[in-house]
Amino acid sequence: MAITVTAMALPEVKLIEPKVFGDARGFFVETFNARDFAEHVQVGVEFVQDNHSRSVRHVLRGLHYQIQHPQGKLVRVVAGEVFDVAVDIRKSSPNFGKWVGMHLSAANHRQVWIPPGFAHGFVVLSETADFLYKTTDYWYPDHERCLRWNDPQVGIEWPIDVEPTMAAKDAQARSLADAEVFA
């Protein structure tokens, strides 16, 4: 097996650590294999879109989700480092409102599977970061929602001590108590 998969504190969220083959020339890593993904992470997933964002230090993107056409996301960093967060926003879940976070970087090659039903976001810790992710559904701007990054009810412990830079839509995000969530 070319990957090690670990369930996070929110068990549906999976940390994926691919095997890295390195030597004096550099490294090789298989970043996605549909057979291994189905066997060790999630059966029946089909990715339809790949995205790439570049952000500078202290940019916070999220916490995003689509209330209709929910997206599963397979995320990774290919340059720099981010702190990546998933929040369970499924009202029927015993983990509703809980979060999990992890450091993703070009150096550690880690990936995270975030299934539909979770809000997702990250903050950049390095000078810049290139963030790549696959999604299981297309982007529908009319269905996009955003959970407030610093909602005290959720209580995410972001590893920054400054006010992050964010898009206007993210700055106007709703608290969990006021947000549209999944059943």
TrEMBL record:
One of its GO terms (biological process) is dTDP-rhamnose biosynthetic process. Signal peptide: none annotated. Its EC number is 5.1.3.13. GO terms for molecular function: dTDP-4-dehydrorhamnose 3,5-epimerase activity. It holds the Pfam family dTDP_sugar_isom. Keywords: Isomerase. The active site is at H64, Y133. GO terms for cellular component: cytosol. It catalyses: dTDP-4-dehydro-6-deoxy-alpha-D-glucose = dTDP-4-dehydro-beta-L-rhamnose. The keyword Isomerase applies. The keyword Isomerase applies. Pathway: Carbohydrate biosynthesis; dTDP-L-rhamnose biosynthesis. The record marks W139 as: Participates in a stacking interaction with the thymidine ring of dTDP-4-oxo-6-deoxyglucose. Catalyzes the epimerization of the C3' and C5'positions of dTDP-6-deoxy-D-xylo-4-hexulose, forming dTDP-6-deoxy-L-lyxo-4-hexulose. PANTHER family: DTDP-6-DEOXY-D-GLUCOSE-3,5 EPIMERASE, THYMIDINE DIPHOSPHO-4-KETO-RHAMNOSE 3,5-EPIMERASE. Homodimer. Belongs to the dTDP-4-dehydrorhamnose 3,5-epimerase family. This is dTDP-4-dehydrorhamnose 3,5-epimerase. It comes from Paraburkholderia solisilvae.
